[in-house]
Structures
1.
Amino acid sequence: MALLEVQDLRTSFFTDAGEVKAVNGVSFFLERGKVLGIVGESGSGKSVTAYSIMQILAPTGRIIGGSVKLDGQELVNAGEKVMKHVRGNRISIIFQDPMTSLNPTYTIGHQIMEAILLHTDRNRKEAWDRAVEMLRLVNVNEPERRMKQYPHEFSGGMRQRVMIAMALACEPDILIADEPTTALDVTIQAQILELMGSLQKELGMAIIMITHDLGVVAQMCDEVIVMYAGSICEQGTAREIFYNPRHEYTKGLMKSIPTLNTAGKRLEPITGTPIDLLNMPEGCPFAPRCDEAMRICIRKAAERQQINEDHAAACWMNLRPDRQTPEEEGGRHA
Amino acid sequence: MREPAGTPLVEVRDLKQYFNINVGLFRTKPLKAVDGVSFAINRGETLGLVGESGCGKTTVGRTILHLYKPTGGQIFYDGKEIVTKADIRSLYTKTAMVFQDPYSSLNPRMTVADIIGEPLDVHQMYKSKEERQEKILDLMAKVGLNSEHASRYAHEFSGGQRQRIGIARALAVQPEFIVCDEPVSALDVSIQAQIINMFDELQRDLGLTYLFIAHDLLVVRHISDRIAVMYLGKMVELAEAKEIYDHPLYPYSKALISAVPQPDPDVARSNQRITLSGDIPSPLNAPSGCPFRTRCVYATEQCAESMPAFEEVSAGHFVACHRTKEING
C-alpha cells in the first residue's frame, strides 16, 4: 500500500463569478521516502492539490469529489478531529514566503514548541530541548540563543530553516514544500535544497515538492507530475519527464526555458496566454495554445495513457499511428 | 551584436549611492547601497547585472537613470558627463526603465492608451491628438498588443500582457538605453520566453542597449553579452557571458554559478555545487575590506584590511580579489 493515495481529487472554489475548478480529477500515489515534484504555472492547481490533501482551503474552496488516503485511511470527510491529528503530525507543510508564515509577536522558540506541545506528550522542558535539537538539525548556529529571538531578527534563509524545523519537529511521514525556495536568493536556495535533501535521506520521509522551477525539480525529485489547468497532463520519473516528454505542454515547457545552450538563439515559447479557469474549454485545456492540436483535442480531453512502466501522459498525440515511436523526439537530451 | 571600439553609450565611474537610515531617535547612519562601482556599457550591448537581494543592483540601475541623485561618482552618457539639470532632462528622453512587477507598476485608474501615452505627454512628443493616438497604436503593435486593447484597464490583462504594456510605455520616448529591472521574474515560464524573445527582437530592430538586472542566472546568461556580479554594494566581477560561466574567478561568482539549478536531472545531480555557509551581511554593517570575506573560504588577513582593486586579469575579464592568482592557479 502506498503511503498516500490520491484518487480523482476534485476541488472547486465557489466565487461570485462562478465555480472555479481548481483541481479537476487528480490521481497519484506517493511511496514512503520518495520525493515527488508537482510542476505547473500559476493557476494550474498545484498548490490547491496540496491544500486539499491538508484540508486547509480558503473558505470559498471545497473538495467536491475523490479520495485522499493516508496509509489506507480516508481523509476526505474524515472530520476535523482526524485532520488535526494528521496536520503537523503525519503531514507537514512549509510555504513559499517565510516572512509571512511566522508570527512576528512570538519568539521562534515559542512557535516551534507550540507544535511539539500540541502533538506529543512532552512537557515544556522536553519540548524546549526538542526545539533546540531541531534548530541544530537545520544548521541554525547557537540554537539556545536563537530560540529567544523574534522572526524579524532572522534572515529569509534562516526563517525558512525555522519553518523546516517546525514542520519536522513531530517527524511527519510527508513534508509538503510549497515553492520553498522561490523567495530566496540562488546561493541560499542551494543551501535550503541541500538541507532538505539530506534531512529527507536521514529521516526517511516523503516530500511533495511544489514548484514552477524545472531546475529545482531536476535536482530534487524522483518522480514528477506536470499540471495544467487543474489536471495532470503527464507524470513519470524525472528522467522520463525531462528526456522523453510525451505531452505537448511538457514539451513546450522544456523548450521554452533558457539553458546554457540557448544563448544568442531564440527561445521557443508556448504561444497564447494562460487559461481562464472560469471559461474552461470543452476538450483538452491546453488545446487552445497547442501547435499540434487536432480536431479531437478541441472536442474531448484525452484519457491518461501508460507510455511505459514509469510514465503516463494524457495527450492524443501519443495515439497517432505516425507518432507511436518517438523515443528520441522532443527531449532535450543531447 | 556590439561594437567593440568607440565611446561607450553609458559609463559610470566610482558611482556611490548612500541612503540615510534612522538607527535611533536622532541618529542616522549611511547605508552604502552602491559603493564605488565603475563600468561601461557599449551601444547595442546587453549587460547583465546579477547578485543577491540587497546587493545594490536595482540601485545601480536607478542611479544611472538619475532617478536618484548619486551620492558620489560620475555618470557619462554618450561620452558626455551628466551634470546640469538640462543634462538630466535630456537623459530622461533617451533612457527608460522596465520594472519587475507588472501588477504594481501600472496605474489602475488609467487606460492602456493613457499609460503608454503619458511619457509622450510629459515630453510633448506630438503635435496633434491624432498623432498621439497614432504613436500609441504603433507602440502597442511593437509589443504585440491589439489596438482594441487601448481603451481597457491594466487589471483586465494577464501578467505577460501587463509586462508588454510596461515595455510599450518604456519605448514611448524612443529611448536608446533601457534599464530592465527583473522584467521577467514575476512571469510564468511559458510567458517568460515570449517576453525574452521580444526584448531580443526590439534590441535588433531599434538598436537598443540594455542593462538587464535579474537573479535568474539562466535568463541572464541567455540574454546578456557581458555579465557583472555585485556583492554588498561593490562590483566584484565583470566578463563576457560565456567567459564568466565557464571560468568564474571571484569566489562568490563561483558559488553563485555552481548553485544554479540546471533543468536536466543528470546534470543537476552530477554537478559539483559550492554551498556557501552563512548569509549575506547587512549593508549597514558591511565587513571591512572585501565584502565577501565573511563567507569566503579563501579569506586571509589581507582581505579584512583592504578592498581589492577591480582589475582586468585577462582580456575583458575584471575581478576584485586579492587572491585571484592563488585561487585560480
2.
Amino acid sequence: MTPPPVPSAPETTMSRRNFLSLGLGALGLVGLLQTGVMTVQFLGPRRVDGEFGGVVQAGLVESFPPGSVTEFPDGRFFLVRLADGGFLAVYRRCTHLGCAVSWQAAENRFACPCHGSYFDQEGDVENPPAPRALDTFAITITDGTVIVDTAEPRQRDAFDATQVVYPAGA
Amino acid sequence: MSWLSNAFDRLRFRARPPVDDRSRMRAVANNLILHLHPTRVPAPALRFTHTWGLGGISALLTVILVITGVLLMFRYDASVERAYASIQTLETVVPFGALLRNVHHWSANLLVITVLLHLVRVFLTGGFFRDRRGNWIFGLFLLLIVLAFNFTGYLLPWDQLAFWAITVGTGLLDYVPVVGVLVANFLLGGREVGQAALRNFYALHVAVLPVVLMLALSYHFWRVRKDGGVALPDQTGPIEKLTTIPHLVGIELGIALVTLTAVMLFAMLVPAPLEAMANPAHPPNPAKAAWYFLGVQELLLHMHPLAALTLSAIGLLGLAAVPFWDRDDSAIGIGGRSARGRKAAWLGVALSLLLTPLLVVIDEWWLDLPALLPGLPTLVSNGLIPLGLTLAGLAGIYWLIRLALRTRHNEALVGLFSFTMNALVVLTLIGIFFRGPNMALVWPW
C-alpha cells in the first residue's frame, strides 16, 4: 500500500532566511525614515507666538483715515486704507530678493532701497526688478477692529479689487 | 632633575634631522602628518610653477581657520541681542581679539580665492584625466563646502552687512521652482532672517560643516595619493625621484611661512568690516551679497533670477562634466594642453575682458528685452531668451577659438574655460566696485 501523497507545500521562491532578512531590512528602512522625519521636524522652522507669524490687532477702523498707510514694524506689514475706505495689509518683504520696503509718503509709493524696485499704494510694481506685486496678509474686521493674520503671506501677480476688505456698513 | 635633562635630550634627539636618504624616507613614513606624502616625489612635481602650491596653501588656511575659529567660539554669543555686542567686545576689549577676528576673516576670504585658483590650475594642467576624474568632481564638492562655510559665517557678526547679504542670498532661493521656498524657510528656521536663522547658521558653521569638511578633505588627500600625486606629462624614460625630506617639505615650509606672514600682515593692516548692528527694518542701499556671490548677483540684474540660477548650475555641471567632455588624456600634465591651447586660453581671457563689460553696459543702458517683447511673460523675455543667448554666445566663443586658431577640441575647451572663468571674475569686479545706490552702474572713484 502506497502512502497517501503528502500535500505539497505551495511553490515559493522565498526561503525563511530570505524572508527574515527582508523583513529586517524593511524594519530598518522604516526606522531610518522615522528618525529622518524626526530630525527634519526637529530642525524645521520655529514660530514665536505673539510676534511676526501671529495675529496682530491693528486697531479701530476709524483710526486709519482713507488714503493712509500705517507701518506695523513687529507685524512686518503696512496697513493701507485706500481712498474708497477699503483695507489692505501689505507684507514688507520686497518680492525681488526679500529686502524691507519703506513707505515714501511724498512720492506716494513703497520703495525698496536694495535694488530700486518701486510699488504703488496697492503694492503693484511701478518699477522692476521686482517680478510681482507685494504679498498681502488676510484681514478680518470684527466689531470695528482691524485684525491682521500674519501667518501666511498671500502671493499675487497684481492688485485687484477682491483683495480689499471693507468694514461692515461702509 | 635628571628626568628633565633626559626629556630635553629626547626632544633634541628626535628633532635631529635624519642624515641619509633611507632614514629620511623612514621618517616620512613613520610620521602621522608627513605620512600624507609619499617618501619620494618625482622631481618635475616639485617645480613651483607647476602647482603654485595652491592646494597646500588652502590646506594651511583651513588649519588657521579651525584654530582661530575655535578661539572665537569662546567669545561669541549666537543670539540676536548679544552677537553684535560680543563682536564689539572682541574688537575693543579682548586683547588681540580684533587681530584674531581679522585673521579668521581674511583667511576665509583668501581661501575662496586659493581654492578657485587651485581649481583653475588643476584644470589647466589636466589634473582630471584617468583615475583623477573622481577627485576632480569631489573637489567641486569641496568648493561648495568652502562657499557654504563662508556663507554661514557671514551672518554671525549680525551687522547690517551680514543681515542683508544673507537676506538677499537666501531670497535667491525663493526662485528655485517647487523646493526653493521650503529650503529657504528650513535654512532660516522661518520666513525671515532672525534668531532661528542665526542659531541654524552658527550650528552649521561650527559643527556640521567642520565635520563634513574634515571627512571630505581626508578623502580628497587620500585620493591624491592613490592617484599618484600631481599630474605629470607621460614619461618615456626613467623619472628622477627626490626624497620628500628635504625637497618637498622644505618647499612646503617656505610657502607656509610666506602665507602665514602675508595673512598676519594683512590682518594687522586691514580690519575686518563691521557695520552698524543689523536692523531688519532698514536695508542699506545698495544691499549686496558677499563678494564671492556678486558675480551671480550681477547676472540677476540682467536676467530673471531663475535664468541666472540655471546659468550658474549649468556652469557648475559643465565643470563636473569636464573629464567626460575632454577625453584626450595624452595632454595630461601639460599646461593648457599644448602651446596652441595656451594661446587659446589667452584669447579666451582677452575676449571676455572685452565682451563681458560691453554686454553689461549694453544691457544696462540700451537693451530692454521685456519692453521690446511686450507680449511675452517676463520669464521668457527676461529669462529664457537671455539664457539662450548667453549659452549660444558661449558656443560661439568655442567655435570662434576653434576656427580662428585652428585648435583641436581640447584646446578650444581650454579657451572656453578661460573665457567663462574670466567672465566670472569681471562680473564679480563689476558687482564689487561698479555698482552703487539702487545697483546702478557707477565709477568707483
